[in-house]
Amino acid sequence: MNELSGQVAIVTGGASGIGAATVTLLAEAGATVISADIQQAANDAPGRFVQHDVTSEPAWKALLADTLKHEGRLDILVNNAGVSGGWGTIESTTVELWRQVEAINSEGVFLGCKYAIEGMKVTGADKPAPKGSIVNVSSIAALIGSAGPAAYSASKGAVRLLSKSVALYCAEKKYGIRCNSVHPGGVDTAIFNPLWQAMGREKGKEMIGSHHPIGRMAEPEDIGELILWLASDRSRFVTGAEFAADGGVTSGLMRRSGFAS
Ligand SMILES: NC(=O)c1ccc[n+]([C@@H]2O[C@H](COP(=O)([O-])OP(=O)(O)OC[C@H]3O[C@@H](n4cnc5c(N)ncnc54)[C@H](O)[C@@H]3O)[C@@H](O)[C@H]2O)c1
Fold first, then answer.
1. Does the pLDDT value for residue 261 go beyond 60?
2. Helix (H/G/I), strand (E/B), else coil: 130
3. Domain spans of the chain?
4. What is the pTM of this model?
5. Which one of 18, 143, 205 would you pick to mutate in the ligand 1 pocket, going by the greatest count of ligand atoms within 8 A of its CB?
6. How would residue 87 be classed by pLDDT, with cut points 50, 70 and 90?
7. Which CATH fold topology does 8-248 show?
8. How many angstroms is it from 124 CA to the middle of ligand 1?
9. How many whole angstroms separate alpha carbon 242 and alpha carbon 181?
């Protein structure tokens, strides 16, 4: 499959978890991929690694300039970098932690969208008009409430509606740039390391998996495949939309929950 051949993609948080799986899938589809992360990507990871902090506006300007200098164009941005902030509640979350989580999960996506549009508007002989796809990785925490992660839920909710705003703006401007959000359920990545350390990885996966109607947690590739589809022209009529990849969590109550019989 070489459907992304000739296209250039940036994946933030590309060194780990969902981002790393997405880097691999986009590269396998033929894209030139830039993995942008604060932590170094694995030596054998595909694509070009760029040290990048999504919270820094100068870093975004530099990343765009570097991409256009080396690759000459930008077609795909996956705003994936994110942190849990320790899943703190409204009572346990300090204002410092709140600002840190919003800076990465929400403001980082705002900056990504802003500079991606600038890059996707750059045209050339093989790209006659502005065109591109922005995929923002949100969470089911943006679709349903929870008493747990206060700052995380707020940050992911912001990403959900920012995505729609970006989509409608680009459509209005006739830019040919689409923007959609992805809402994963529990995915087996390093974001759960504290839980794995507390109760063991297999036991933890089983516990979280039991809360998913499909009966298991997701693997990073389960989410990466959806991102790949949204990045490609196969989803050409899709913009401003939100996609749960959550094994059924947000679909409703299960019979075994006892609320329906
Ligand atoms: N794992 C899940 O269950 C789950 C569920 C819903 C949503 N998500 C979202 O998926 C995305 C990816 O998370 P993951 O589960 O793969 O976790 P992960 O910890 O494996 O990967 C996150 C990556 O983001 C990078 N990162 C953190 N801060 C950054 C910054 N300031 N600048 C650049 N990179 C930064 C990290 O270095 C890391 O490589 C996050 O936005 C997360 O909120 C994850």
1. no
2. coil
3. 8-248
4. 0.97
5. 18
6. confident
7. Rossmann fold (3.40.50)
8. 33
9. 5
